[in-house]
Specification:
Elements lengths: L5 E7 L2 H11 L5 E7 L3 H8 L3 E6 L1 H9 L10 E5 L2 H4 L2 H6 L1 E6 L4 H12 L4 E2 L1 H9 L1 H4 L1 H4 L4 H11 L4 H8 L3 H15 L4 H10 L6
Parallel strand pairs: 1-2, 1-3, 3-4, 4-5, 5-6
Helix pairs in contact: 1-6, 10-12, 10-13, 11-12, 12-13
Amino acid sequence: MKKAPLRALIVADGDVVTATVEAALRDRPDVQVEVGRLQALRRLIDEGDPTVVVLASTAARAAAALQAIVGMLGVPPIVLLVDDPAAAWTAAARRAGVRAVLGQDAGAEQISAAIGAATAGLITLHPDALRARAASPRAANVEADHALTSRQREILEMMAAGLSNRVIAARLGISVYTVKFHVAAILDKLGAGTRTEAVTLGVRNGLISL
């Protein structure tokens, strides 16, 4: 059976940026490209049901555009191409579905690789975003500002092992509802948008080890 093409929605500030990103994906026969305006992001996602969104703009405008899709169900992974990767990689962006942050000078191979990683549930970050996070006192010491309880650490370790809420509840002798409450608290404290990202941040900040 022939695999359905990946539908990439490109939204950008202007035609030049849109054309640049579109050209980067032109050689991929498995990608079907659609373009639209930044201001119409919510409607384009709702009506077009894209597999991935490539959003090219300044960090500030990208943040404003992402505010429009907060709370939407089924938001696809988003790849940002911005002037300031460090400013773009925020907890709000992650909650909105951002899974990759690249610089505006990213080449075709980088953009294509980021799209592939994002659709596979992985995170791709520009080095500046990582350095800024590491240099931030808040990010460098998650325990100090957003301390996880011993139970939350225990649950985060089980999440890292790939256990479901039901299995975690059975192992700890608590209700599934209580596990869900802890998972939500963990994501909030770590500024994570998904369980996978929470585990990644937990490992990066030394809260758990794999």
